[in-house]
Structures are given as C-alpha cells and as structure tokens.
Amino acid sequence: MDIKSTFAAQNYAKARPATEPEPSQGGASGLAGQIATDFTATLRNAEATAEAALVGKADPHALVEALAQSQLAVETAVTVRDKVVEAYQEILRMPV
C-alpha cells in the first residue's frame, strides 16, 4: 500500500456523509429554537419591567421601551406564522 492510498483512506474515514448535518451547525431546528428563546426572553423582560413599573421601581421610559420591543416581537411572530400557513396552503394547492 503506498502513501497516497493511505492518505486517501484516512481522508475518506474523516469525511462525513453528505446527508448528515455538520455538528457545529444547528440547522433549521437550532435556528428556530434560538428564535423562540429570544422571543421568550423579550416577553419576560417586558413583563418584569411592567411589574417593576407598577411598584415604582422602573422608569416609565424603560416601560415604554420594553412594551415596544414586545409588541414588535409579537407582530414579527404573527407575520412569520402567517407566511408559514400561506406557504403550507400553497403546497396543498399544488397538483400531484
């Protein structure tokens, strides 16, 4: 066995199949999970700021900012949901 075939065998063993995702990347599910985590954190931050404002521990400006961020997050989530539903309905209308 010569050196070239040994290197080829080693590289072949190290190569991943094309159907497997790279371990460093989360793929679509990892991205969706990160988006959901960010969305939840935004809403929790707005709730905490609102509770602090009710007892007088938060600045009214911080409350308005937190509420605006949560409103933007909810509107974005609703828009994405509508686009997903629209795409699903379009797929259902495709001829087989």
> What is the count of helical runs?
3
Low confidence ranges: none
The fraction of residues in strands falls at under 5%
**Strands, total number:** 0
Element order: H for helix, E for strand: HHH
Compute the number of structural domains. Answer: 1
Oligomer: single chain
Summing up helix and strand content along with how strands pair, one would put the structural category as mainly alpha
Which geometry do the CA atoms define? elongated
Radius of gyration: 24 Å
Sheet of most strands: none
Give the CA-CA distance, first to last residue. 53 Å
Query: Helix amount, in percent?
Result: over 70%
Describe, in plain words, how this protein is organized in 3D.
Helix 2 (27-54) packs antiparallel against helix 3. This protein has 96 residues and is mainly α. It has helices at 3-14, 27-54, 60-93. It contains 3 helices and no strands. The longest helix is centred in the C-terminal third of the chain and has 34 residues, at 60-93. It has one domain. The protein is elongated, with a radius of gyration of 24 Å. The model has no long low-confidence stretch (mean pLDDT 84).
